[in-house]
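Homework help thread (please don't just give me the answer)

Our assignment gives two proteins as sequence + structure token strings and asks us to describe the second one. The first is just a warm-up. Here they are:
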Amino acid sequence: MHAHAPTNTCTPADLGLALERLRTTAPLVQCLTNAVVTNFTANVLVAAGASPAMVDVPGEAADFAAVASAVLINLGTPHAGQRRAMLQAARAARTAGTPWVLDPVAVGGLELRTRLAETLLAERPTVIRANASEILALATSGTGGRGVDATHDVEAARVSAIHLAAATPSIVAVSGPVDLVTDSERTVRVHGGDPLLTRITGGGCALGALVAAAVAANDDDALVGTAAAHALYSVAAERAAATASGPGSFAVGFLDALAAVSPEDLAARAVIA
């Protein structure tokens, strides 16, 4: 999971280099994600410089996970066939050493997906990306959020995120107005973004796919890759919001901004602590 002895810091320059690696390597990301966000997720990956593959069919998912650069498993609409494919892909990814991201959408409040998430945790995801309520539900006996919405703030989940990162072991990324990324030893907060991200369908789900791409391109330090994906998202959202007249124009502008933000822009504009 942690391929080397990590440094104690994560700087904006590190994030810029992480984005440069993503653009140079154009990682192939297998997405087993929910039906509501498939198109937007694919567009986010292409705009950022990665390549999407929406391969979520049982019998194919495992074969593809073994050759993909990274895998995203998002529990948004986990119908029976996709659940089988998710388990196959996670097991194949673990065996092949393919980094993979778990997005445990709405766990805690819904039993089926909560059990599925617990089963998938045994396959050791590289990154767990979720909102605060979902992290609390995975790490404790919390009841989860209101569907896909968080009812807790990010700092309320900080201790649980650190414990979950140590226990899995995975990078844990908690999304909110200020994102928190931890590997249990290092904790990075990524500031920025715009509230319009919460007004478009797939804003959070597509971030999980971008995390997968960034981690694939930066497999020597998954925490830096994860933080870079969050920082790119925040900077692009700010750029898009500056000219948007509402959620619709923001969504289009956000894709444009993901493509336009350079590694130098990210190093200059990312705000982390």
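The one we have to describe:
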Amino acid sequence: MTSLVCVTGQHREMLDQVLRNFQIQPDFDLKLMVKNQGLNDLMARTSVAIDSIYADVKPDRVLVHGDTTTAMSAALAAFHRRIPVGHVEAGLRTYNLSHPWPEEMNRRVVDVVSDLLFAPTMESRANLLGERLGGRVIVTGNTVIDALMLTLSRIDGDASLQTRLDEQFSFLDASRKLLLVTGHRRENLGSGLTS
């Protein structure tokens, strides 16, 4: 089995960090992001660009991750070509189309067109089963936690990396517990985390 990686360039700075950290070399980098783009423009450009790749590669399956506009567009383009879709992070719900917007709609659309639904939690699984979607639901756990554990394992196995990190974060007190908090991008701006 051969897996090919396609990125759209959405959230470029974060994407490049992740690609470097996990030593992933994309087979396709669509570089679709433009300044002041609208969601409909992004959706259209993603659909056209990814459809061209589907036509050339003829994949047996497409896996999409998350709830971005590009993930939704890639899933729909695959669906239109009758390529089976698997959704990683399936079943996340607020049941409020305005929050988070447009992610709540994106994740629902991807789940509707997917035949494999990789749910991070039992609650996500219950959401999918309650919606009576046609896809097979598999609880896989949280990809963020998987990435954290992989990174910790890499640090534990690399003494020089440990030294560099100890120097970079010398202000941390090793005798105290460290709490890692993750938040959606919007909650990192303004009063989102404090409200």
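TA reply:
I won't write it for you, but here's a hint about the kind of observation we're looking for: The chain has seven helices and six strands.
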